[in-house]
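SAMPLE LOG
Freezer: B-3
Tube label: C17
Construct: single chain, 300 aa
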Amino acid sequence: MGTTADKIAKAVLAHERSGVIDLSAYRAAKAAVDDARLGDDRLRELLAKGSDPAHAAFTYAQNFASFLCEQMCSMKELRQYVDIVATAEDDYLPGYPPQSPVTVSYFTMWALFDVLFGQSRETIGTCLLRLAQDMPFPGWLVDAISAMQASRMGFYVHEGLEDRFVRLREIDGEGVKLCHIASRYQGAEGQIWFGRLIPPMNELVKYHVFFTTPYIVIQTTEAMISAYMTREIERLAGRRRPGGMDARAFLLKHGPSPNHWNEYIFCAYSNYRKDAVFIAGVPDDRESLPLGRLKRATPP
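STRUCTURE (predicted):
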């Protein structure tokens, strides 16, 4: 019968032929991506000029994914997905403080690449990668979407600066990664950051991109975060995880419930500046969260 992604790819192609999906709008979006010329030669050119080609590629890919997602959301195969994301939009009002600590940069990546739906537990990202088998996506675009789908949230310790990059070490992870920070926030050594690193999309780029606005975790220690992660992983024991994903990666990408990280950010909010948002506490300790009184017992 095929996976949910197979059914969606088949439906997209059928809807294009019948005119349900606006072909002119799709072609315009594809033309904008093609005009970006972010293949290997263009990436080399941007590197030589000192621009950040990886960030540019991921921004174009995110915009393209958002457009196709909007076009696909009228399909019956995405009803569950639409319900999850629409409810989260109503509950968390994504934007930027003071409107909401759930930033657009965070929420968009969550909606496109983390929200699971359908019997085969797809994301919009996995559906687009399946669709790319039948539609002429540029190679660099497939690489960028693949890297974004592979990304997840994480807790990191600031280990200092190296040229224009921030060195980040994941708590309970391996090694230190050089990171381009999309918001240009540089921070300070010893800070704990919560956010999404996107791995390099090809061999031309050796660094990660911190694609979301950094959430700077204050009044909270590395030991507190590590202990929380251990507790949550134990609670996930026996849960079904797509593709055999290990419990820690599943927790940081999908959470024990769809809105787990939305709820954490919302209740942990403390303060902000134009290039960073400050949060405090750990998700399962209501008393440690500045807005813990608003925390729901089991976020949907």
